[in-house]
Amino acid sequence: MIIEQDRVDYIGILSHIFKEQGITQVQMSRDIGVSKNTISRWMVGETVPTVESFEKVLTKYGYVLAVRKDTKTKREIRKELTQAERSLQEKVRIARELGISYGELDARLRGTP
Q1: Residue 67 backbone dihedrals phi, psi, to 5 degrees
Q2: 19 CA to centre of own chain
Q3: Which of 53, 85, 102, 111 fits as disulfide partner to 49, beta carbons 3.0 to 4.6 Å?
Q4: How far is CA 68 from the centre of its chain?
């Protein structure tokens, strides 16, 4: 199983692992060699696991953390936004020519009454 996160949600991931694996904090602490109190502090957000500890958890229970980075440049994002804005302006122009509201045109384009 691959878990993808833009930001690492340790509590969410650990909760998922506890539920899916049917294990307790005590079992996990034994499996990865940290105290039960350490796991407990992770689960309440008091501390976060070290990279090494988190990697042990993931490896032990068969998970992989996939780190994604948005590869679009600011220039590409600006270009997409400009195109979207032009598209919106074109739809507004067409709606005016047809004498209908933008909402009505949008509904027609989506095929809804």
Answers
A1: -100, 125
A2: 19
A3: 53
A4: 10
